[in-house]
Specification:
With about 180 residues, the protein is an alpha/beta fold. The chain has one domain. It has seven helices and five strands; from the N terminus they run E-H-E-E-H-E-H-E-H-H-H-H. Strands 2-1-4-3-5 form a five-stranded parallel beta sheet. Strand 3, helix 2 and strand 4 form a beta-alpha-beta unit. Helix 4 packs antiparallel against helix 5 and helix 4 runs parallel beside helix 6. The chain is globular.
């Protein structure tokens, strides 16, 4: 049985170095659709947004399968710009994860676009599609290795409330170590 891949769309704000941009590399491999205008994002899609009040969870699977998964690609130096983005979809924040990308390696929550997309896919049960995205980067598989326990626990959660409870446990453990 072949699982239909999730449709992925990325809003690209053109704020990063195109040679180092994970989104543009995914586009070159035909793994994501890139748009430069917000109005081109699919209505009702689940939007990965670090400022969202609601956590991304397995409960979002049906909506993602129907409407798609959207990521916002902008520079971490200009995150305040993202707060002003008017979104048409269902805004969700990813739970606590640690970056594996060379720029922010080991830093909690400072994920690259490909890491954010892979995390969302993994949480929804699309582990092969997540691995496919990450395989385009030398450091990509390290993201899953670093976050394996967290991702597996988030994937078992029922909904956003459960994800937040699991996240709290991981943050407490991180604070103690």
């Amino acid at each position: 049985m072949t699982v239909e891949p999730v449709r992925i769309i990325v809003y690209h704000a053109r704020q990063c170095d195109p040679r180092k941009c994970s989104t543009l590399k995914l586009k070159r491999h035909g793994l994501v659709r890139v748009v430069h205008r917000l109005r081109l994002l699919p209505r009702g899609a689940v939007v990965l947004n670090p400022f969202s009040e609601k956590a991304f969870s397995p409960a979002d699977r049906q909506l993602v399968e129907k409407r798609g998964l959207v990521a916002l690609d902008y520079s971490w130096r200009r995150t305040e710009d993202a707060r002003a983005i008017p979104l048409m979809g269902q805004s969700r924040g990813l739970p606590y994860l640690v970056a594996a990308n060379p720029v922010n390696f080991g830093k909690p929550t400072k994920l690259s676009t490909v890491e954010a997309l892979a995390a969302a896919l993994y949480i929804l049960g699309y582990k092969e599609q997540a691995a496919q995205l990450l395989s385009k980067f030398k450091w990509g598989p390290e993201f899953i290795r670093l976050n394996q326990e967290r991702l597996d626990e988030y994937a078992k959660a029922k909904d956003s409330t459960d994800v937040v409870a699991v996240q709290r446990k991981f943050i407490e453990e991180f604070s103690v170590s």
